[in-house]
Specification:
This protein is of the alpha+beta class. Helices cover 24% and strands 30% of the residues.
Length: 344
Amino acid sequence: MIANIPHAPLLGRNTFGIDATARELIEYDSVDDLRSLAPMREPFIHIGGGSNLLFAGDCGTTLLHSRIFGVDVIDDRGDYVTVRAGAAVVWDDFVGWAVASRLAGVENLSLIPGETGSAAVQNIGAYGSEVKDVIDSVDTVDMLTGETRRFTKEECGYGYRRSVFKRSDMKRYVITHVTMRLSRRFTPNLSYGALRELTESMTMSPSLSDMRHIVIRMRRSKLPDPATLGNAGSFFTNPIVDRDTAARLKAEYPSMPQYAADDGGVKLSAGWMIERAGWKGRTVGHAGVYDRQALVIVNHGGATGDEVIAVARAVISDVEKMFGVTLTPEVNIIMNSRTSSCSN
């Protein structure tokens, strides 16, 4: 079934709580429904749970949204179980299902907002884990031709908050299902320092269920609930710089956190730099930087998309002036009929 909603209100479809309207919203229930919409010659934007979006104003582009649900076990080989989830499955519901089924691999990604299809686009990550660690393949529909295509994990081109689906020339592919490989053998991933510290006082190694509860408690202590304070989680990605730049910054700021990146570069802490630039807890108008986590920009109530963007641009400017590093928004900013960024 396909639902076509003209002049669709978006207030309840974005966790920033921006009051905007879309020219048209199309929701679909199956792969065949989605294929029937092709070919889509005009620009469109596919949205998930709205947890990584910022509407700068009313949206003049057609929005697509999946209602493909369900989680199916498609292969069970003892220690490993392969499952296939519909793109519209709420991500944390999937994590809860996996933990309840005693299947490990996604517990450190508990409570991340959004839907499963979007998780595969963004390569969501937290506390030492990324969704690419469990993804086996991703099923899609090409909206120019209506043909289906399965992308292997390697073809997805995953990196830090990166996938092939974020490229402008690949946005014609809409994810319908995500296939993941989970394990019946649980070994807690305690590579993230703060997570490890929380478990050190436990008399026994944490169970799979323990890990989910610990992660949820940690996230709730640091990140605002979008139901009470509009936000899209981390607004910026942690920048990756070359080793010479990292060494220069470390010499000038000895306490600056730095981490090895997969590509041989060095990952910096955007939150640390934003806080040092004086933005943690600072409010301008109806928007500001969260007082517990400087990576998060929040809507204190009634903020427009432009107000949030103004705060983000000011943060980018001050961090660049202080450290010579340019922050990149992780949030997709939709400006009328296109996606954009704060640096444009």
